[in-house]
Amino acid sequence: AGNRAGGGPLLTNYALTLLVVLFLQSRSPPVLPSVRHLHHLAGPQDRAQVGGWDCSFPRDAAELEPSGNSQSTVSLLAEFFSYFGTLDLGGLLLSPLEGRALPRPSPETLGGLRPGPLTLQDPFELSHNVAANVTPRTVSRFVRCCRDAARLCRGPEFQQKSRRGRPWGVMRLLQPGPTGNSGNSEGKFLIPVPLPSPGGSGGIQHREVCAAVGFVLRDVLGCGCEPEG
């Protein structure tokens, strides 16, 4: 539910990125620190204000403590969908500044922040709701898609592994890449993506699914796609 132009009723890429940041901040232990914590860690040389807003954070990443969270990427992906599929977004203030979802305060205490069906506060320009353009229909669709994705993540297709216990199919894209040239004899790193057979009356739908998967792999991820011989 994102758009690149930044207008219209959809989530912008910036808003989607902040949703991922907020989710990672809210883990226990957190994967990312809150922006408030970064303010506290900033030294005198790191102090910065932009338009009157505190934009201070340590410039040297070595000053940050490593995260103690040891969850896998696959586990975090499943939790992301579950997290946003269960939140009452209409009654919350999503705050990357504090690193968590807060009960939404009354409008007069929000310092000019305009609440909406999804209230996602910019972590630096605190009066800016980066999802102010999002409609109730978009929020409902986003939550519904997250619930559907969370249910799929609990299913056997998501959990399935090969007989050697390795991740299969698209899940291998979420694993660290191979070092060296560990593919086949031609140097390719092959990822089998099993799709259902086009039998019965679902031929048109099957072609649409294959086309969508091919578009993501080729045009978005830059992979090559070859039908299994």
From TrEMBL:
Residues 75-128 form the PAP-associated domain. GO terms for biological process: RNA 3'-end processing. The keyword DNA damage does not apply. Pfam families: PAP_assoc. Keywords: Magnesium, Metal-binding, Signal, Transferase. One of its GO terms (cellular component) is nuclear speck. GO terms for molecular function: metal ion binding; poly(A) RNA polymerase activity. PANTHER family: POLY A POLYMERASE CID PAP -RELATED, SPECKLE TARGETED PIP5K1A-REGULATED POLY(A) POLYMERASE. This is STPAP polymerase. The gene is Tut1_1.
